[in-house]
Fold this protein.
Amino acid sequence: MGAALLVQRDPDPFQAISDFLESPVLRISGQLFLLLVVVLWLSLVYWTYMDAGRRGASRLLWGLVAVLFPYVGTLIYLIVRPPEYVEESRERELELAILERELRSRMPLCPNCRSPVERDFILCPACGWELKKRCAGCERPLNMEWGVCPYCGTDQRSGKKTGW
């Protein structure tokens, strides 16, 4: 009878593990973890879909890749996605266009061939177009429409100095 009491008193060492695995706390914790994994996956699918649209890539294609290949699809997208957003690209292009326009306004262009020329050029080096005329008195370059040289006061039509 003493041996029978020992067998009944010794608990099964695996019973505690079995009770823990069958406990409602573990089951609820497992379900919450699964819910977290699914919510994270759906969030990554949504983020991939939206980011692809902002970057000019195909939303449908990358959203489908993220759905079919959980977690890995978003990782692949992160590796091959376009480097900048469409808005950033357009903004950079506009800034470049403004800078080019500003540069053109500072540097005169030949009216014939639109090549850049310096302000004191008399002829365009690209096409030979006459940009300015030389003063009859001092030989300095003058605009074509000037009638009197502002440097020496010579009248360009008659070649004589004015009374200044």
The chain has a mean pLDDT of 86. The CA atoms of residues 55 and 86 lie 5 Å apart. The chain has six helices and two strands.
